[in-house]
Amino acid sequence: MSVRVGVYVCHCGTNIAGKIDIDEVVRFSEGLENVALVREYKFMCSDPGQALIQKDIEEGKVDRVVVASCSPLMHESTFRSVCERSGINPYLLTMANIREQCSWVHVDAEDSTDKAKDLISAAVSRTSLLEPLEKRVVSINPRTLVIGGGIAGIQVALDLADAGKEVVLVEREPSIGGHMAKFDKTFPTLDCSACILTPRMVSVGQNPNIELLTYSELDEVNGYVGNFEVKIRKKARYVDPELCNGCGMCWEKCPGTRVPRKGNAHEKLSLGPTSSIYMPFMQAVPAVPVIDKDSCIYFQKDKCRICEKVCERNAIKYDMVDEIVEYEVGNIVIATGFKTFDPGIIKRYKYGVLPNVMTSLEFEVMNCAAGSTGGSIVMADGREPESIAIVHCVGSRDNNYHEYCSRVCCMYALKYAHLIKEKTKAEVYDFYIDMRCFGKGYEEFYDRLLGEDVRFVRGKVAEITNVPIHESEKDKLILTVEDTLLGAVRRIPTDMVVLCTALEAPDGLPDIAKMCNVSVGKDGFIIEKHPKLGPVATATDGVFVAGGSQSPKDIPDTVAQASAVSSAVLSMITREKIEIEAATAEIDEDRCCGCRICNTLCPYLAIKFDVEKNVSVVNEALCKGCGTCVAACPSNAITAKHFENRQILAEIEGILSAAK
Amino acid sequence: MSFEPKIVGFLCNWCSYTGADLAGTARIKYAPNIRTVRVMCSGRIEPVFVIKALYEGADGVLIAGCHPGDCHYQEGNYKALRRYKLLKAILPEYGVEPERIRLEWVAASEGDRFAKIVNEFTEQVRKLGPLEIKKSLYESMKDDAVRHEEPIGKNGENLDEA
Predict the structure, then answer these.
(1) Is the ipTM of this complex over 0.90?
(2) B11, B16, B17, B21: which to substitute to probe chain A, counting the most A Cβ within 10 Å?
(3) CATH of B7-133, one of 1.10.12, 3.40.50, 3.30.930, 2.60.40
(4) Based on the domain organization, do A256 and A175 belong to the same domain?
(5) Prediction pTM value
(6) pLDDT tens digits for range A360-375
(7) CA–CA distance from A585 to each of A195, A251, A594, A645 (Å)?
(8) Could you give the number of structural domains in chain A?
């Protein structure tokens, strides 16, 4: 195959010409095989420089291009555009880096010139063997799947729906709202959490662009960016949402106990009805209850059916089954939030062993006005506490559990201190390692608390015990702590302890990540594309992450991140099409022996196995062109477009031709 | 006139090639013996590339990829590491000193590290001298061969003295 390679040597002012002998390089290049002509110019990337190349191509003198100048990372796209404009395939171009990796880094002019000659020889050999590649374009479906109906998912859904785009919002609990629905007040402004959240929840429920699927989970994802096919499992509620009007008769009369009705105040904590047919909290969206099979008398013992009897709308349907629904979407957003660390594994803290040791989330629910205590802070036996301890960093900043800081606990500890002072006359002890009050109004809030007679002790609590060594410790929970500012170990007796538990990745996140073809990190959270410049995208095009599933964060940061995702998704949708990698891998069916070694090597799961033909096949839309499979194939059946074996071997020959 | 080794470097686009470019923009000087081949990922590098380079006249081969955990394509650099270790174990069979190939992790921000590695490696290969690919397999395995019979060739010559 005869090719006409044009070699264009750039002076780059004196950057190259000042070290490398351009005339010698030109002379040398003219003697290379397949070279039709060689030109030199002061600045090849400038308009007149580009025009030189364009003219040669248009006049048919040259059908492939080598530009010996700066790094391809600088100007490969520039010269690819020149090729395209002039009528040849943009992939028939190689750049020889004789600036960043030659004239700028070597001292001797002769050595630099020799190296430049070798690099150009390599580039010409490679370019002679390049193949034209087609730019691949895929369309973007304007519908988006949002997994998770907490404040992050809600924000994304509303942003997209308000922009006129369709959203499918999937939430595995019976209602959207997430953790915010369980909080009483939010720091530092102390606004009522439900008051700021519920209007948004209602908007989601009413927005015609949002298809809300609660009590549902992601089942399967297929496809690629712009063209995902997803399957959602709608779990059986046993209540028909079309008929139910949320009147509440069913849970009022239900004798089943999902949450204990007898027992101590802490065991009975609940935001919604404690019956088997229930809503998680009163402002649930949708306002349709769900039957908890495990505690339902009908499902367990085939008796009762009271809810069916009292329901005026005949909405109770015991024979409902899980339903799988399918959607086509262009982008997927993972907004599955977090879960809290179980402090039961820290034996010294006696959570679950001694009464009155509770987690922060349990304390939140107790404080909610709509909760079982009406918002009062009480001990397990119902008495008002005389003193309460708040312990920071339970499971966080701890090499034994989670190294990371959970970011929100210092602030909510301050919030609790304030709420306790507001609602009770109790003494408050706050045990901290550091006070992390980094956000807007946060340090000011801390300052305010310092004036509210809260006892701040700088030390990590070592143990919580109920064994007294002194009369004043009788019937109390004693915390042993090294007060580092005092320089002494102290025993502090209190009535109640609130443990600020770490925020962890939610259950099931690795499964969701696998389905969406993204990874979770060592800490369990979804890995973002780049920690600084790509905080909401992931390595998989079309899959985004927002909120607690990416890392622990407070509400302002969650909402900001969610809107960042909406912006990125809308950008994709309005573009309508995106270009995907052209230099992908291709498997030769005839050479492939079906060993499947490549299948597991691909980090993008881009290689599938065709069982009928017994060969592996690359999904070009998922392939990123890394070439790992190419190198591994024992049959040499895989070709890496634009980085083929023969092209690279020719490049090596070109580099070393002078060595022989 | 000291021996000037020829070094071929395989650099991955995202980390090491960018790092080498950074050495350029920072005008950090290093030995001119190296010539680089750009690949998208160190995981693309096949042992045959390394062997081809040595066969065509290179005295040393440098492979540079992203630091573990930072591979632009997630895990390609781990594959490169595995292949490199195997290759290093096999090369002595062909009479190639394992010190002639080297794998290094170079981040996009490590221009000075790239220069340092090139200088060190160039000196290392210079000390090893020019690579001589052995003409026959027997010659390269001679010293390790287990003797079962006298080393007498076809024409009665003593092969050890060949």
Answers:
(1) no
(2) B21
(3) 3.40.50
(4) no
(5) 0.79
(6) 999 999 999 888 899 9
(7) 53, 59, 16, 12
(8) 5
